[in-house]
Amino acid sequence: MQTLFNNIKGDRLIWAIVALLAILSFLPVYSAASNLAYKGTGGNTFTFFIKHFVHLILGFAIIYGVHKIPYRYFKGLSLIMIPIVLVLLAITMMQGTTIAGANASRWIRIPFVGMSFQTSTLAAVVLMVYVARYMSKIKEETVTFKASILPLWIPVFLVLILILPANFSTAAIMFLMVVMLVFLGGYPLRYLAVIIGSGILVLTMFILIAKAFPDAMPNRIDTWMGRIESFSNPEDTEADYQIEKAKIAIATGQIWGVGPGKSMQKNFLPQSSSDFIFAIIIEEYGLIGGFVIMTLYLWFLFRVVIVAQKSDTIFGKLLVLGVGLPIVFQALINMAVAVELFPVTGQTLPLISSGGTSIWMTCLAIGIILSVSAKREEIKEQEINEDNPLEILSEAI
């Protein structure tokens, strides 16, 4: 065990924050999964606890393995992974899975293992690494819009178009994060305005085509529009069932909460262990518990910015921001949905909500961040050794 700790590199505060979030997730997941347990496993909630524990253990194994990889290798890996991700997304979409006539093709089943994998979460991480690679490559060059279309925007729009029919919120968040990253990378604002306009145009065309030919292309447009209408019309309690239950849970929790495992709304709130777990946390642990969780995410954001600022390369800076900021952004959206500041999106709370793929891909992103910070530590140690007279003397002897 001591050997393992000695081999852990990178920003120790990020390690601590991630470990705290993982530890704090166990009781809420165990409590919130009770309604799923009674529906699927005859009331055995411990099964969900063990499942969540295994997911987190595998997640930390991913963090450890990835953070040992020199981050410069991710440049080449992103080029290899983009075509693979496009193929996986195409296979996922062509499955044609529908729920109530809407496209629900988000997962593919891994052969021989029997596990489901949400391909869009992998695509999100790979795409951000790919964009960071391209922006670092052209940083010292004169950027032209025409030259950036094929190597940058074609892969971005292909990934988003393959995700859009089944998962609008993920596609929208990915597009926003890409726009943010290229802006930070120095992409000209006039070109960026064209891209944003093109994105809005593509979305409008997709909605019109999907509305005109609903049978030819199952989609979730009615679901999206229903959620937006529900958000803008709080009196529509039937369409706003999830939000109403979340608000009841938050109101019940007050300052100190009703206590661990004593939530009542977990029995009525759909997706209480994933999409709406923040409401359950506040019900059981009060505003104090919710504030602790939010503080940890903001602390994580602060450390991400610090690691990016200290990175010795443009690629390292953009890489850390590209994979780190979406984690915090997703967390804030999840919390905003629970308190009705944002329409329902289906986004989980990173490292807190139950679920395998979301946890593993979050851990993949964290491993990449730690890889960048580990490289900075290595350079710093080398600089100290070079300036150490005793080290120079020992080498001379």
UniProtKB/TrEMBL annotation:
Compartments where found: Membrane
GO biological process, one term: cell division
Bilayer topology: Multi-pass membrane protein
Record-listed E.C. numbers: 2.4.99.28
Any one cellular-component term (Gene Ontology): plasma membrane
Catalytic class of the enzyme: transferase
Record's keyword terms, sorted: Cell cycle, Cell division, Cell shape, Glycosyltransferase, Membrane, Peptidoglycan synthesis, Transferase, Transmembrane, Transmembrane helix
Name of the molecule in the record: Probable peptidoglycan glycosyltransferase FtsW
Organism: Algibacter amylolyticus
